[in-house]
Amino acid sequence: MKYTPENAKKMMIDGVVNIQGTVKLDNTKLIDNYLSISRNAYDSGNSKEAEEYANKVLEIDPTNYKALYLKGVAAGWQTSGMNNRIPEAVDCFALAIENCADEQKLEDLKETVANDVSKLTLAMMRLRCEIYKKLPSEENAISLFAEAKNSLDLVLKLIASCGFKPKEFRGEAATMMNNAAVDAFDGVIWKDYTNGKPLILTNKFGVSKYKLAQPNDVSRYATPSKYDFDKLLARTDACIKIIEAAISIDPNDDEEDLTRYKNLISITEKIRDTYSVTYNPGDLYVSAKWFKEYELTDKAKEARDNQIKNWKSKKEETERRIHQKKVDDYWGAHEEERKDIEERIKSLEKEVSDFTSSADYKECNEAVCNFILEEADLLKKLDQCGFFAKGKIKAQIKEARSKAKPTMDKLTALDKRIEPKRAEIKGLKEKLANPIQ
Questions:
Q1: What pLDDT score does 70 carry?
Q2: Under DSSP, is residue 221 helix (H, G, I), strand (E, B) or coil?
Q3: Contact (Cβ atoms closer than 8 angstroms) between residue 331 and residue 435
Q4: Which of 37, 82, 276, 318 has the fewest Cβ atoms within 10 Å of its own Cβ atom?
């Protein structure tokens, strides 16, 4: 800089001074001061002030990556149920990474941002889950699984714009969603429906025991109305969507998905079999009683049964994947043992093949097969013939069995000689399929 403001003042004289060249103000100390205030405010939990001072820096230098980062993280932690500022934070993070020229600092920045994005996303999911658990309305359910989708979209946006992936958060988010749905159903949805009381019970034959009653029986049994019944179905369907979203959000948590499928099945079975209740005060000829008012139609119950069947099938598929992964992991760590077993199976199968290919074994086996066919034909004739022909055919069967017996006994003896090898092959194959006891 040719002239500083101080030098210019010293050189001032009466009249007009002609200064040539570019005059730039050095705002380094001011920027550092604002950054320090912003950082201290953020560290002390004052995100609003941290954002304000980060903005002061950006008014001076719009490309300052430190200020862009602080603005992003401060904005993100000001997220509320009514104002999600995480997308704004992600935009600031992307600009911070774009404007960081120092390669070493850039890598550190990326790692910091990765952690922050995960923490912010989980905090937002936790907020949505807490809101839903307290008020499990359809609208809050929609907000919850929409937030899950939005979080994944933000991750893809970061990968596309910055070339890095935030720390994994989907498993924890999925667990929070599942737990929120189950807590909401058990603690609010079903409790609201039954007022914490049992529905009218059924007897041991499964027939509804419409209890002869007085109106004060509401103190003992739940008596949900048609309005309660419709509300239950709507809230439960939204709850089910949250659990399904929890399953889909993370493709690598099969163990946890088993629990989620169980939850889906249990909740759906419960609402499939429920009903609303109404009271008939009776008259001179009819006793007062509580009785079923509304329940799902047969078609609606069939639809629920199909849902349950689908989830049970997926649960079984998940169990198979879990088992196969355990098998693969085991043999990956015991490669030599696996090779030894496979070689032993191959050797035993050759011995069995050589034995059963011998002329003696093949001759006995063929003779027994012919006898079985002959016997089956005679038994068919016996079943179809008249009363007077049965004696003759029974005699033929007896004779055929008598002739075949020595050969069958010989084949049995030969099979006993080879049976230990067949049994060993079976055991070794079972070991390969299920090495973990």
A1: 95
A2: coil
A3: yes
A4: 82
Domains identified in the chain and CATH numbers: 26-167 (1.25.40.10), 169-333 (no CATH), 335-433 (no CATH)
User: CA-based diameter of the chain, in Å?
Assistant: 149
Query: Of 143, 135, 140, 145, whose CA–CA distance to 188 is shortest?
Result: 135
**Is residue 161 predicted with pLDDT exceeding 80?**
no
CB neighbours (10 Å) of residue 154? Answer: 20
Using one digit for the tens of pLDDT, what is the confidence trace for 54-102?
A: 999 999 999 999 999 999 999 999 988 788 888 899 889 989 998 998 8
Burial class (CB in 10 A: 0-12, 13-18, 19+), 232: buried
Token reading at 368? 């027994």
The runs of H, that is alpha helices, within 334-389 are 335-356, 359-384
Give me the long-range contacts of 289-297 (CB less than 8 A, separation at least 24). 289/210, 289/211, 289/212, 289/213, 290/200, 290/210, 290/211, 290/213, 290/217, 290/221, 290/223, 291/208, 291/210, 292/200, 292/208, 292/210, 293/225, 293/226, 293/229, 294/226, 294/229, 295/229, 296/271, 296/272
pLDDT digits (tens, 9 = 90+) for 284-343: 666 666 777 889 999 999 999 999 999 999 999 999 999 999 999 999 999 999 999 999
Distance from C-alpha of 360 to C-alpha of 346, rounded to nearest angstrom = 23
Please give the full DSSP string across 292-328, using - where no structure is assigned: EEEE--HHHHHHHHHHHHHHHHHHHHHHHHHHHHHHH
Q: With the CA atoms of 237, 239, 242 and 247 taken in that order, what torsion angle do they form, in degrees rounded to the nearest 10?
A: -90
**28-35 long-range contacts, CB within 8 A, separation 24+:** 30/60, 31/57, 31/60, 31/61, 31/64, 31/67, 34/67, 35/64, 35/66, 35/67, 35/70
Query: What residues contact residue 314 under an 8 Å CB cut-off, 6+ apart?
Result: 261
What is the tens place of the pLDDT at every residue in 375-401? Answer: 999 999 888 888 888 888 899 999 999
String of b and e for 187-200 (b: at least 16 CB within 10 Å)?
ebbbeebbeeeebb
CA 71: distance to chain centroid? Answer: 34
Helix (H) or strand (E) holding 245: helix 226-249
Encoded tokens for 284: 């001179």
Provide the token pair at 370.
Answer: 């012919």
Q: What is the pLDDT of residues 212-221, one digit of tens each?
A: 445 555 567 7
d(CA 313, CA 309): 6
What angle separates helix 47-60 from helix 65-76, to the nearest 10 degrees? Answer: 150
Tens-place pLDDT, residues 60-70: 999 999 999 99
* Predicted TM-score of the model (pTM): 0.73
